Amino acid sequence: MPDGKHVRRIFRPGNRCGVDFSNGPTPGDQRQGRSLDCRRGVDALRLLDSRLDIAFPRRTVAKEPFPKPYVRNHSRGAGGLLAADSYLITGEYNRSHHAGGLDPFLRQRPNMASEKRPRKKARMNAPFETNIAPQPNAQDASLTAVGRCIGDLRRGMAIVLRDGPDAMLVTAAESCVDPRALTMLTDTAVACLITASRAGALDLDTHDAPVVAIEARGGLDREAIGTIIGETLDSSQLAEPVAKPATPMQRTALEVVKLARLLPAALTSPINSDATEFAKRYNLLALDIANIPEYRGAAGALMDYTIDTVVPLEGAEQTRMIAFRPADGGKAHVAIVIGDPDENSPVLARLHSECFTGDLFGSLRCDCGDQLRGAVAAIEKAGGGVLLYLAQEGRGIGLVNKLRAYKLQDDGFDTIDANEQLGFDADERVYAPAAMMLRRLGFTCIQLMTNNPDKVAALEAQGIEIENRVAHAFPSNQHNEQYLQAKATRSGHLF
Question: Which is it for strands 445-449 and 465-470: parallel, antiparallel or unpaired?
Fold first, then answer.
């Protein structure tokens, strides 16, 4: 294909087209300028810059001999999907969706198929190229499959969820620009899945089900989706909503979206054709629900610590920080070992969930900053101990959703109700990683600094002996009085 033309790449690296090109490209492929690579996974990823599956010439770019690596619209979600899919099917770009732009998994890229590049010589002393990686076990395969799908959902893309012969198209509701895009691909109705707590906030009948599927007689549009998942309680934008208990497969779809640390709301549309062929046609990742239980078990596990280094702190200069990386590829947890604690006696310990606003900026809406600095001072005064800094922002809902909860608190909800209005549980944290960190550090009996009796019970359930609970409270201010009161009266915190 001549230089200077941009093309739409319909297959991502990894080449999931599933067609056998072992005998090389056909003459027709060569005439159309296609560069076909049959390798999959990491091998194909390494060839991203040299071999691409490309189709559909777009436009000539004048006076641009060295185009940028990616020429892309900054759209997200299914609104762009609708525009891009209409181009793939009809050959014309539907500009009514230009505000949404092109969907994120159909991107433009300059054609480099005809460009010949010299092959790089292998590095002679590359340490990672001399070892043969072990074959992955079932748990590793589940981590990979679910982790890749989680990554796509976080980027606003859709995935195919399979359960034997049944399948559905799934995307996160918060990143979807126009739900009609899913209908265009599947020719079936779209349902919005939310938790029972969010459905109750909208005064919808939950039928005593943990997850509710919402449909509308005239179909769901973006305004309706915004109302369903938004921070408001106004359901007037919903035209004749129909709420019914979610199917087991729909509940699994919502769980996958929650694993992606997004709002617990998903859009689903059944796939009536062959799911494998559907995924190949639209270059989507497919996930079997059998992988999810394996992922749950592995996600709480930690790999060996990645680094152990000295980091002197103000008021505690003899301090080491040890980073532990979760097996699911999430944010690292950090063990802060102060002094030289004795493994043979109950060590003073604190489990602290990260708080970007309180720990770093000293927010007055919580007491997290006071608790963090107070714990360091207390451990130093006791002669040594450990503080586990856990990557569980906002009681496990993440920074963005915590800020959404703050907005609801400004409207009069307490910290517990705000989480539930968004569709989360009151506390989404897990303490299996903390228990594993303590064991790897050699601390199996501790004195736990906490006001939360749930932490004591959670660690004991994981095999950690709690010698005694040490109170860890600080004075309130006019901004966090209601927050602390809700923790005491509704969560049972002991101040």
Answer: parallel
Look-up of token digits 């923790």: 487
Beta strand residue intervals within 376-423, DSSP E:
384-390
Closest C-alpha to 468, from 345, 377, 381: 345
Q: Which residue has the tokens 């525009």?
A: 83
What residue has token string 């559909």?
A: 56
Within a domain: 218: yes
CA distance 492 to 441: 30
As annotated, the active-site residues are 427, 429
pLDDT digit string, tens, across residues 374-383: 999 999 999 9
Exposed/middle/buried for residue 204 (C-beta within 10 Å: 0-12, 13-18, 19+)? buried
State the DSSP string of 200-257. Answer: HHTT---TT-SEEEEEETT---HHHHHHHHSS----TT-SSEEEEEPPHHHHHHHHHH
The answer to whether 183 touches 220, Cβ cutoff 8 Å, is: no
Whether the full predicted model's pTM is greater than 0.85, yes or no, is no
Residue-wise pLDDT tens digits, 253-282: 999 999 898 999 999 999 999 999 999 999
Write b or e for each residue in 226-242: b if 16 or more Cβ atoms lie within 10 A of its Cβ, otherwise e.
ebbbbbeeeeeebeebe
Residue 201: pLDDT band by 50, 70, 90 thresholds? confident
Q: What is the CATH number of the domain that holds 359?
A: 3.40.50.10990
List the structure tokens of 312.
């002197």
207 and 270 belong to one structural domain? yes
Residue 283, token pair as written in the block? 């270059």
Q: Where does a domain end: 249, 278, 299?
A: 299
Structural domain tally of the chain?
3
pLDDT value of residue 490: 92
Instruction: Report if residue 132 sits inside a domain.
Output: no
In three-state secondary structure terms, 170 is strand
Q: Give the type of residue at 248.
A: P
Query: Is residue 462 located within the same domain as residue 369?
Result: yes
Assigned token pair, 376 = 């360091």
Q: Return the structure tokens found at 265.
A: 């709301």
Residues 51 and 75 in one domain: yes
CA separation for the pair 266, 247 (Å, rounded):
13
Residue 461's domain comprises: 307-392+429-490
Give yes or no: residues 375 and 440 share one domain.
yes
